Amino acid sequence: MTILYRGPLASCDYDCPYCPFAKRRDSVEQLRADRAALERFAAWVAAADHPVSVLFTPWGEGLVRSWYRRTLVELSHLPHVRRVAIQTNLSHRTSWTSDADPARLALWATFHPGQVPYERFLGKARDLAERGIRYSVGIVGQPEHLADARRLRADLPDHIYLWVNAAEGRTYTDAEAADWTAVDPLFGHSRHPHPSLGRACRTGDDVVSVDGDGTVRRCHFVPTVLGNLYDGSFRAGLGPRPCPLDMCDCHIGYVHLEPLGLYDVFAGGILERIPNLA
After folding, report:
1. What is the pLDDT of residues 60-79, one digit of tens each?
2. Are 206 and 2 in contact (CB under 8 A)?
3. Which of 120, 129, 159, 184 has the fewest Cβ atoms within 10 Å of its own Cβ atom?
4. Which CATH architecture has domain 2-266?
């Protein structure tokens, strides 16, 4: 089972103008609630009697919170956890990863120009590579980011995949798309939303979304509730089913659309967005 977990955490140390997520400043009470929810979820994963992979997709930045770092480390050492990964802006120190099992831990790191000095981000990315941590690096395909993206591709270790997300609501000319494809050969998958209505998708079968209360849905983008993780009621709702939405335009959604064949493209690196380009 693959689980996309998103608790109530929404605070972020960045304020990117292109970010589609509504940010808030979490109160002490909200942070405590997020910590309690995460610890409850981690306990469920630890007690599971079947293989589990987890991708944390917080609205805010998780790695600046000690409970996310601790949870990633602890879950990485469980033999039935195949992969534990998190989306992050990589603003926090990277030394904590030394306590994790590098065979299971992975990071999905996004560089946000204007929010962090280039050299600081690059230094952390290189440090992760030296520590043997699996990770991908990405950037949003805004025109003003192209120079930084090219620079990153030149400066990152060759084996690190640099992905480009199409900017929200932006249409790319063929010439613009060619520039981004030179940075990320898989940019074509992000360039246009994918028609998904009626198409087979793994979500709701062996991939599910879980929120801080344990509510299970097929994915982050379909509101229909399958049940609850903690009382086991979600299991009766699992099974193959077509997508009910017209379009899917987010990687964590469309990567699971079976007609796209992206499980072959990202074999072994679905959660951390690392393709198998061998």
Report:
1. 899 999 999 999 999 999 99
2. yes
3. 159
4. Alpha-Beta Barrel (3.20)
pLDDT tens by residue, 146-194 = 999 999 999 999 999 999 999 988 999 999 999 999 999 999 999 999 9
Of 89 and 56, more confident: 56
Could you tell me the two tokens for 277? 């380009």
pLDDT digits (tens, 9 = 90+) for 190-239: 999 999 999 999 999 999 999 999 999 999 999 999 999 999 999 999 99
